[in-house]
Design brief:
elongated; alpha+beta; 16 strands; ten-stranded mixed β-sheet
């Protein structure tokens, strides 16, 4: 089967366009201090069943894995005595009590004070220069300490907004500019601009290898890698993805580039650069290697432009890269 993607040179790059917005989920309810408790008496139908099987029937809204963890943490009692073995067989007439400890995910939507590098803020929105290492939205393995948690602490209105006003994301180890809505009106307007590709963003990136083309467009659909759930890949049945790339400088086996997204797929620039045979410096997930002092992928969102949702005025912001990226960039561009 012919691959459904194209790699072709460009005479001129198209206008910078921002990632498309992700799906919106409503905020999780705030956890209460005292967990709900449920009780049941084992009848003939449940006699000799495993404890975790019984507890699953008592709390069907939770996953079995979570309830097994609840048992192991000592939050289940049999006849008033703590039982930590999920495999324990229950007997008819025994009274089971479970304290329904919330999942980490359900507790993710809470305020955590943290320093935010705010480039601009008014009553409608704020623009943040996200540092590398900061997760944008809670997910498995990162249910706290995210940008969302920081936004909830930063202003009261965030709690009333889906995803606390976050309308697009950057990877954990990607630095740079993000816009966040502070009101429902602003969030709606920003999402519409992103969907219409009227928001412009440009990235700085450093790739492994010396890239010969001056400009190039990669038009290659992206989906979850069927061989690895933590990677994305170019897949013929994936969602359309288009990236424009401009070579800035080449030196000593590395290439500095500017990248423009026409779509906003997960890991899009990282996947498309790897497709070209030039994975990003530091991006070990896609075949890159640490170099130039970088231990994370060499990717920084440096330019962001959009129409202000209240005034309609075109606004533009730029953020210089953090020290690690700036030093690596200078090592390629200044020496070229």
């Amino acid at each position: 089967m012919k691959n459904d993607y194209r790699v072709r040179p460009l005479a001129d790059l198209a206008s910078d366009l921002l990632d498309e917005a992700g799906s919106d989920d409503g905020p999780e309810p705030a956890p209460t201090d005292e967990p709900e408790r449920r009780q049941a008496v084992i009848d003939a139908a449940l006699n000799t069943q495993r404890l975790d099987q019984v507890v699953v029937r008592m709390a069907k809204e939770f996953s079995r894995n979570h309830l097994q963890a609840v048992i192991g943490a000592g939050h289940v009692q049999i006849d008033g005595r703590v039982e930590t073995s999920a495999a324990r067989r229950v007997r008819i007439g025994q009274r089971i009590e479970i304290a329904l400890i919330p999942t980490a995910q359900s507790q993710a939507f809470h305020a955590e004070a943290m320093p935010l590098a705010i480039v601009f803020e008014d009553d409608h929105l704020l623009v943040i220069n996200k540092p590398a290492g900061l997760v944008v939205h809670p997910a498995a393995g990162h249910w706290s300490g995210t940008l969302l948690n920081g936004l909830l602490a930063h202003h009261a209105g965030a709690a009333a907004l889906s995803r606390a006003g976050i309308v697009h994301r950057l990877d954990k180890d990607t630095s740079g500019l993000m816009v966040v809505g502070k009101t429902l009106t602003a969030v709606t307007a920003l999402v519409r601009q992103i969907a219409a590709r009227e928001v412009h963003r440009q990235y700085m990136a450093i790739a492994c290898g010396e890239w010969a083309s001056r400009t190039q467009r990669v038009d290659a659909p992206i989906a979850r890698d069927p061989r690895s759930r933590i990677r994305m890949a170019v897949v013929a049945s994936g969602k359309p993805a288009m990236t424009d790339i401009e070579r800035i400088a080449v030196h000593a086996g590395y290439t500095a580039v500017h990248c423009t997204l026409h779509t906003g797929r997960t890991h899009q620039i990282r996947v498309h650069m790897a497709l070209l045979g030039h994975p990003l410096v530091g991006d070990v997930l896609y075949g890159g290697k640490p170099a130039l002092g970088l231990q994370r992928q060499a990717l920084h969102a440096r330019r962001l432009a959009f129409r202000h949702p209240a005034s309609g005025r075109l606004v533009e912001f730029q953020a210089e890269p953090p020290d690690d990226m700036a030093t690596a960039w200078a090592g390629v561009v200044s020496a070229a």
